[in-house]
Write a structure and sequence with these properties.
The protein has 326 residues and is an alpha/beta fold. Helices cover 30% and strands 14% of the residues. The protein has eleven helices and eleven strands. The protein has a six-stranded parallel β-sheet with strand order 7-6-8-9-10-11, with helices on both faces. A five-stranded parallel β-sheet has the order 3-2-1-4-5, covered by helices on one side. Helix 2 (19-28) runs parallel beside helix 5 (118-127).
């Protein structure tokens, strides 16, 4: 049995953008054993893709330990960096499929383009090798959790980088508005973001029992997003999960533009994406200036619009893709 190794040792959001490519690979190679090198904590979501046979736990580049026979094909869905290609080279793969890197002149592949949505990027990589990929094949079957928060509004207060974190006091103002409307609200985030979530709850007058940040497994978090009436969040894995489950969102973008990682164009009718129109430093230690230009008033207006939508009108899909603010 031929082995195909796929490298994608990044976070939840990055993983979810590779789902159409992973499924395309699965369809093209139904008898091969597909192994995904990815962080083990993402396994519950990886299993939902139904595209991978096994996981090679890989927390980050340099952490891949490959003791199996050399894969027939190694696919780089991580990044065309020298480190990622070296990682795959160490497996003695028969062939490597990757975007080009000048350090490897013999490695064929398409030219990397920065200004491209990652779903499109990974599908194009496979198509360069003759594998047809469906960009719309992003959906996941919602998991079932023992604790239900059906029809709650999920406010995801954190983000992987400080530059992408909208201020807690502004999230609190949005939560207060939701409580006035009589909506059930839950605050989500990972363990490192629990203090932020508790701060938002205290400012908004939300009971601490509604703070789920740090108290949920990844699968429980996914189930909460899947059954929510609405998700309010920044450019995070929560947004990608909502896209995969068909949950409506209000997404706050900055410092990177939504065309680099927001909802794909064919799904924009179900999402409101706010962006100030300026690109900043994603590695900054403070919230992005463009992100801060998104005010509470704009977010509340978007939330009200989304909560008023009971169905998905076909006309929404033809509207302007992203809403600029400021």
């Amino acid at each position: 049995m031929a082995v195909v190794l796929v490298l994608q040792a990044r976070g939840l959001g990055d993983l979810l953008t590779t789902v159409p490519a992973l499924r395309a690979l699965r369809r093209a190679k139904p008898r091969d054993h597909i192994v995904l090198a990815a962080p083990h904590r993402l396994k519950p979501i990886i299993d939902l893709t139904a595209a991978v046979d096994a996981i090679a736990p890989t927390l980050e580049l340099g952490a891949l330990r490959w003791d199996e026979p050399a894969p027939q094909l190694a696919v780089n869905l991580h990044w065309p960096s020298t480190e990622s290609i070296v990682e795959l080279t160490k497996t003695d793969a028969g062939r490597i499929l990757s975007y080009r890197n000048p350090a490897f002149p013999d490695l064929e592949g398409p030219v990397w383009q920065t200004d491209m949505h990652p779903v499109e990027r990974w599908c194009r990589l496979l198509e360069s090798d003759g594998i047809t990929a469906d960009r719309r094949n992003l959906g996941l079957v919602p998991p079932v959790s023992t604790t239900s928060h059906r029809d709650s509004v999920v406010v995801h207060v954190g983000a992987g980088k400080k530059a992408r974190r909208w201020p807690p006091d502004r999230f609190a103002a949005v939560v207060r508005h939701l409580l006035v409307l009589g909506r059930e609200v839950v605050l989500t985030g990972d363990e490192s973001e629990r203090d932020i979530a508790l701060s938002v709850a205290a400012r908004a007058g939300l009971p601490t029992s509604r703070v789920l940040a740090g108290d949920q497994s990844l699968l429980e978090f996914a189930a909460t997003v899947a059954e929510a009436a609405l998700v309010v969040c920044g450019d995070t894995g929560a947004a990608h999960l909502a896209t995969a489950f068909g949950t409506r969102t209000v997404q706050l973008f900055g410092p990177t533009p939504p065309r680099w990682g927001g909802p794909p164009p064919h799904l924009l009718g179900r999402h409101v994406v706010l962006w100030a129109g300026q690109i900043g430093d994603p590695d900054a230690d403070t919230p992005d200036a463009g992100l801060l230009r998104i005010g509470v008033t704009e977010v509340i207006a978007a939330v009200d619009k989304q909560l008023s939508q009971r169905h998905w009108p076909g006309t929404e899909r033809r509207r302007a893709p992203y809403r600029r603010v400021g």
